[in-house]
């Protein structure tokens, strides 16, 4: 078993493993390391202006000659200038999150860039399939950050049945068992975020990484359900205060004021008490720091051994 899929040819990669484009966390260093290891590294644009993102893209191009991607967060105030930049830089792969990328599709396609939106519902998947996206990431609510309502287990097979493009499973996957499960659901590949935060090459603050390494099964909570933008994060002082305000019926303005700048505070400055420590439920499965190469090797080897076990015993 050589562990290739249609995604490898589509994206020019060795293994069908994508690294999630996490805002502030997925910098050029991490993305380049994952691409060098044979997966697809992805820089997270988050809420960054194009000038900052441009430096990251240039850095990644210096660190690897292999393809890498950029994730656009569609709620960003800089989305228009970020789209302009990505077209100018002709980034190989664009993934999108937190919205519908429909209005930018033609411009990416004109440049031959691959477009892979994150979807959390069948309806959006069907709409985007008609626009000619190259693949889709079906992300379940086990994921960290901004999430939809369905679990990976039920979402992935429904998206696989609804569209004709390759489907990448995301949300709750952190090891070879999860990868094998995703393949069993019909996925052509996987995207992991939280596991890659533990990579040596990930430049997130040590406090952020430590909190993920120490997390247990019930340590994530979902904030922002009342605002229509639910976000999964590790429980801390900020989430306790935020959830209390939500319960008391705070306005969206009050809540967004409380949330402003909190992700950067945690990721860059290590304030994991008052900052937003976004992570998926799989944080409990992530227990050690290692290189991106070792993470990819471990995922491949464990996936193969799960599949062999199943083939021999069932
Ligand atoms: O986008 C993510 N994860 C994120 S974005 C982010 S930054 C942020 N911070 C505070 C509030 C909101 C965002 C942190 N983590 N994952 C991909 C993802 N996309 N998950 C769910 C969706 C999604 C949701 C609705 C995609 C499309 C969508 O469609 C809306 C529509 O127009 O139908």
Core attributes:
three-stranded antiparallel beta sheet, binds ligand TUI, TIM Barrel, 14 helices, 314 residues, eight-stranded parallel beta sheet, globular, alpha/beta
List the helices and strands and how they pair.
Elements: H1 6-11, E1 17-19, H2 28-36, E2 42-44, H3 50-63, E3 69-73, H4 79-89, E4 93-97, H5 105-110, E5 114-119, H6 122-130, E6 136-139, E7 145-146, H7 152-162, E8 167-170, H8 176-184, E9 189-192, H9 194-197, H10 206-214, E10 220-223, E11 231-234, H11 237-247, H12 252-259, H13 262-267, H14 292-313
Parallel strand pairs: 1-9, 2-3, 3-4, 4-5, 5-6, 6-8, 8-9
Antiparallel strand pairs: 7-11, 10-11
Helix pairs in contact: 2-3, 3-4, 8-14
Bound molecules: ligand TUI.
Quick overview:
This protein folds into two domains: 6-204 and 288-313, Aldolase class I (TIM Barrel, Alpha-Beta Barrel); 216-278, no CATH class. The protein has 14 helices and eleven strands. It has helices at 6-11, 28-36, 50-63, 79-89, 105-110, 122-130, 152-162, 176-184, 194-197, 206-214, 237-247, 252-259, 262-267, 292-313, and strands at residues 17-19, 42-44, 69-73, 93-97, 114-119, 136-139, 145-146, 167-170, 189-192, 220-223, 231-234.
Structure description:
The chain has 314 residues and is an alpha/beta fold. The chain has two domains: 6-204 and 288-313, TIM Barrel, CATH 3.20.20.70; 216-278, no CATH class. It contains 14 helices and eleven strands. The protein has an eight-stranded parallel β-sheet. Strand 3, helix 4 (79-89) and strand 4 form a beta-alpha-beta unit. Helix 8 (176-184) crosses helix 14 (292-313). The chain is globular and about 50 Å long. The two termini are 18 Å apart. Ligand TUI binds next to strand 5 and strand 7.
